[in-house]
Amino acid sequence: MPDDPMDQAQAAIRLWTGVECPNAAGRRALDDFPALIAEFAALRGGLAFEDEPSAFEAVLREEKEPEA
Q: Please, which domain of life does this record's source organism belong to (predicted)?
């Protein structure tokens, strides 16, 4: 992957949690990160919110809280 996001991910982890990477747990959590980014990048341009608006609206109606 040309732009390896690991340095940015480690900086974000350090900022938000105070955990220094690469500790064992942090490194394990980031092992699949580049593949996940690549999968999302492969979907870019292929999906749009408007593809299933009727299904989205149906879910909103289904999940709507009953009025008191």
A: Bacteria
User: What is the number of other CB atoms lying within 10 angstroms of the CB of residue 21?
Assistant: 19
Domain ranges of the chain: 6-63
This prediction's pTM: 0.42
Give per-residue pLDDT as tens, 3-48. 667 788 788 888 998 878 777 877 787 788 888 888 988 888 776 6
Q: b vs e for 41-67, b when ≥16 Cβ sit within 10 Å of the residue's Cβ? A: eeeeeeeeeeeeeeeeeeeeeeeeeee
